[in-house]
Amino acid sequence: MSSSKPSAFEVKSYSVWDKPTRLFHWINVILVLALILVGGIMMYRAELGITELTGKIGLKTLHVYIGYAFAINLIIRLVWGFVGNKYARFSHMFPNANSKNELMTYKSELVAGKNPQYLGHNPKGKFAVLGIMLLLVTIMITGLLRAGTDIYYPPLGSAVQSYLADTNVDPASLKPYDATGVNTEKADALKPLKGLAGEVHVYAVYLLLLLILLHVFAVVYTEVKRQPGIISAMFSGKKIIQGQPKDE
Predict the structure, then answer these.
(1) Which whole-number Å values give the CA distances from 240 to 15, 197, 231, in the listed order?
(2) Where are the transmembrane segments (predicted)?
(3) Element (H, E) at 13
């Protein structure tokens, strides 16, 4: 990338999104869609004719396995947010102390008919990215909680089994959705936590879906009206900018 500043009409190509960032984005898209699909089947399994306990556990197990891949991908991205290139780092992607002023300036420039160009996310996009990332982390944490309490899967499954096992019962012998060997009082004490984790998980997914729809709309609108090439940049890593970028 040249160090000289381009003129107002000069078009230049900039390397922005590094490979790990692009991989996370598309892997995350695939995994989130897969989780939503399996989660939807789980919610409406009775209507779909899946009434056997083995079918319920099978769906939960599949959901958890996909969830592990989702969690690993997200954790890698969280680490990359501190060690990746400039535009992959959270310090550049998320709002900061000056973001309110940047947002007001951005809006005033749009009202004035200007077309500010950004290499990273524009001031509105930074707030959206923060919201999406917080929801992804919330979904991951609550999903792992339910994996441990529902079907005794790692990382919490063994601890949950040890807590729930009745006196002189081998914790490893406890089976999902089977009260055999389970201490009733402890199971009842655990229910509020399970319920809360489940509700937060589901509503976080609903909110994520809303943000995804808004994100897709905003990206397409910006691509067509404001800054062509932002969609292809998530494949190539390069953005085509006319004039001087606001965040170079």
Answers:
(1) 9, 43, 11
(2) 23-44, 64-83, 127-145, 200-221
(3) strand 11-15
